[in-house]
Specification:
single chain; 115 residues; alpha/beta; 22% strand
Length: 115
């Protein structure tokens, strides 16, 4: 069985971009994936987007604290062996998670993989 990859997307008032980022993760052929979206708006701005997807674990912050604390909250909630950060204005290209997992599995002493 493949190791679980927890994909973390933090967002702040960018719903128009968030859905495309989420869709790019859900389109990955790699399994299993845990998708965590952190709404750092402090007002639940992204709840309407997060709520469209049963596959998304949403974290809605009570106040805006910035990207660092938002990512920390997601990592603390993550259950995957690997964590992949994705900004809300980016997308994953086809095969990205499979290639990253293969690289990490081939080099078990590596602490990080990035592009």
């Amino acid at each position: 069985m493949n190791p679980t990859i927890s994909v973390v997307i933090t967002t702040y008032h960018r719903n128009e971009l968030l859905a495309e980022a989420i869709e790019s993760v859900l389109a990955q052929e790699y399994e299993p994936v845990e998708l965590i979206v952190v709404d750092d708006s402090g007002v639940g701005h992204a709840e309407s987007v997060i709520g469209r997807y049963d596959e998304v674990k949403g974290i809605v912050k009570a106040e805006n604290e910035g990207c660092g604390p938002a990512r920390t909250a997601a990592v603390e909630a993550a259950t995957g062996e690997y964590v992949h950060f994705l900004d809300d204005d980016d997308i994953l290209l086809e095969g990205k998670l499979s290639k990253t997992a293969a690289a990490l599995e081939a080099h078990p002493d590596a602490g990080v993989a990035y592009t």
